[in-house]
Design goal:
It is built from 12 helices and 10 strands. It is an alpha/beta fold. It has one domain: Inosine-uridine Nucleoside N-ribohydrolase, Chain A. Strand 1, helix 1 and strand 2 form a beta-alpha-beta unit.
Length: about 300
């Protein structure tokens, strides 16, 4: 039976491919797409979710906008990687997929309570929406199967020396989610940097043919140019689909169960995920942390999804 799933995202080039993967794979039942400010402003990430669903032919999946700023402080966006629109590269027409009037948190709450079985939440951006859901609606906890997030790192960061973007944009939200007591899997930079968009990957996507595949190539080409300019990486890492892949087939993403804390006050380390791989803190484990990706099988899954949506 397909796993019911809600995707919370901030599209974003890698979010776009994650939406396609979640919608295409028959092992998932995509109940909703909710948006949050992160890679760009809420208005732009919501528009981008609509654009992706339109070009990929994803219909019947409600899209709802959530929070436009973090729980504390001002919003930082990822324009330096994702461009002014948040999804620079392809030329998109006017989206035909609508956005619902419900707030993202209210939509998630309703879907969780209405669904006959527990639902998996997959947050791919700042964790603001998920944190507010857990904080303000404790009645949904029993209806959450697990939370599989893209964020954090066991190693270095990408927006600051030790802080990954999604966690750094809203550290208080990430802290609340990781301390929730719910089953949490963290797919951080250390594993997503194993999903590199090589020229071979781009060639496989181009060979599919059609408007969607062409758009994916344009997205990844722009994304790659940003990573080369900012980080000196010729092949960009496709972060967000790794979390979706973990839900589809847990054997693709090898994890360890360890304590994870979020640094909230450090002068140089606010937003860092403190992953206690060697049990130095004595804290109880509170998360599964992704360590290794079966990269060839991951890309097979991703190419298969785009092929299916292109048919």
């Amino acid at each position: 039976m397909a796993i019911p799933l809600i995707l919370d995202c901030d599209p974003g080039h890698d979010d776009a491919l994650a939406i396609m993967l979640a919608a295409a794979d028959p092992r998932l039942n995509l109940l909703a797409i909710t948006t949050v400010a992160g890679n760009q402003t809420l208005e732009k990430t919501t528009l981008n979710a609509r654009r992706v669903c339109t070009i990929a032919g994803i219909t019947g999946v409600p899209i709802a906008a959530g929070y436009d700023r973090p729980l504390v402080g001002e919003l930082t966006v990822g324009e330096y990687i994702h461009g002014a629109s948040g999804l620079d590269g392809p030329t998109f027409g006017e989206p035909t997929v609508p956005v619902v009037e419900e707030h993202a948190v209210e939509l998630m709450r309703r879907l969780l309570l209405e669904h006959p079985e527990p639902v998996t939440l997959v947050p791919l951006g700042p964790l603001t929406n998920i944190a507010v859901l857990l904080r303000d609606h404790p009645e949904v906890r029993s209806q959450i199967r697990e939370i599989v997030l893209m964020g954090g790192s066991t190693e270095r960061g990408n927006i600051a020396p030790y802080s990954e973007f999604n966690v750094a944009v809203d550290p208080e939200a990430a802290d609340l989610v990781l301390r929730s007591g719910l089953p949490v899997t963290m797919c951080g930079l250390n594993v997503t940097h194993q999903a590199l968009v090589t020229p071979e990957v781009v060639a496989r996507l181009r060979a599919i043919g059609g408007d969607l595949a062409d758009a994916c190539v344009d997205l990844l080409t722009f994304f790659g140019s940003g990573y080369e300019r900012v980080f000196g990486l010729a092949d960009p890492p496709l972060h967000d689909p790794v979390a979706v892949a973990r839900v589809i087939d847990p054997s693709l993403v090898e994890c360890v169960r360890v304590p994870v804390a979020v640094e909230l006050t450090g002068t140089h380390t606010r937003g860092a995920t403190v992953v206690d791989l060697h049990g130095k803190t004595g804290a109880p484990p509170n998360a599964l942390v992704a360590m290794r990706l079966d990269t060839p099988r991951f890309w097979d899954l991703m190419v298969e999804a785009v092929t299916k949506l292109s048919a």
